[in-house]
Amino acid sequence: MSDDSSYLFYQSRNPRPFLDYGEGIYLFDEAGNRYIDGSSGAMVSNIGHSNPRVLAKIKAQMDKATFGYRLHFRTHPSEDLAAKTVAMTPDGLDRVFFVSGGSEAVESAVKLARQFALTQGQDARHKVISRFPSYHGCTFGALDLTGYDPLREPFAPMMEGMPKVAAPATYLDRDNLSEEARGIKYADLLRDKILAEGPETVLAFIMEPVGGASTGALVAPDSYYGRIREICDEFGVLLIYDEVMTGAGRTGKFLAAEHWGITPDIVAMSKGFGAGYAPLGAIVAGARLVEPVLDAGGFLHGFTYAGNPLACSAGLAVLEEMDDQGMIENAARMGEVLMVQLRALMDRYPFIGDVRGKGLLTAFEFVSDRETMEPLPPELDAHARLVELAYERGLIIYSRRTRGGMTGDHFLIAPPLIITEQQIDELMVILRDALDAFAQDAGLPVEA
Ligand code: PMP
């Protein structure tokens, strides 16, 4: 067994302990330390770790065949998972294409949109408008849609530079509008952008219905969602929902789109869809889009591992378990419990400026002043520091500081959908302890 971490490179030179095993909402390292997986990894492990029924179903598939290339065989896991996915998504989304991750899903959504436009004789449509800040993935196409400068800048000359509109960070807005009017104001930025770009050149608009890593669980006013759908319809622009993080039950509905009764033209999913049991993602779209593409010769796209029976058996087992155990309903209920407890943190910690989210995708954000919403000074390195203090105490949370964006240090709390009320209490005890330690280190005041 190698104990040399230098062969493998990720982002940092700072190795973590070796993972030993997982159980429910907990992970254990090889030294026997227990961690609450308060962010489900990177918002992945929606059904919790080491679910025995899911493992048994994957094992059963493993014993039969781990791979059969999709051009050589149909497979039951892929077709059954497609059927199950369609059954769980809103009407009008009835065609599925499998991939192995979120960036692949986003790339696939955009390529499907483009091929559909070609079947309509709309060859000029090629621009995909996205929001700033946003995160859509790290491959070149998905990165070009991503509104997060530190990840883009080194590669910027290698991309076209897709148009961006401001994400609806209404909690930072100091206008005198009602919530509803604010939602419309932000949505209309898309209309202005489409007109400025030339509507005949705009292919699609892509958005995370609830923001993920880049904005920290940003939820728009309700009015935003319907207005965006109307604007896309007005100009024949396809609406792509990036539900890579929000899909598969995370926000208390199977798709976040369901909260607002929106049917996007294409939905990208991953993360909770395979829930950490297999690298898996999907795009789901209406037959209205897909059939013309198939009639015109087929989708010019496909990854080697797409739809492999092993990953699909895992995805199918995950969705069945989610359904059988009522996990999405639990996410909605526990999301409310968690939100109340997170909001209560604002009484004790004046440097928490906002708490937000939907279901079990929640976040809080640090500020130096609640009036101006100025972030904490970057030298405090708060986003990294609090994560470390929580980690040392056995709680995993996920953080970002959006440099060049509009938000400061924010922290995502997104435990597996199976979490209980008692486990939320347990999580909050550690979180408060870590926040106290952070405040003390940083010399920030705490209310008694
Ligand atoms: N879209 C969103 C909204 C995401 O949160 C992510 C991952 N954080 C991606 C796309 C990219 O997914 P992956 O890392 O699996 O390629």
Automatic annotation (TrEMBL):
SUPFAM superfamilies, per database record: PLP-dependent transferases
InterPro entries in the cross-refs: Aminotrans_3, Aminotrans_3_PPA_site, PyrdxlP-dep_Trfase, PyrdxlP-dep_Trfase_major, PyrdxlP-dep_Trfase_small
Gene3D superfamilies xref list: Aspartate Aminotransferase, domain 1 (3.90.1150.10), Type I PLP-dependent aspartate aminotransferase-like (Major domain) (3.40.640.10)
Annotated keywords: Aminotransferase, Pyridoxal phosphate, Transferase
Keyword Transmembrane attached: no
GO MF terms held by the record: transaminase activity
Cofactors required: pyridoxal 5'-phosphate
The UniProt record lists the keyword Transferase: yes
Record-stated family: Belongs to the class-III pyridoxal-phosphate-dependent aminotransferase family.
Protein name: Aspartate aminotransferase family protein
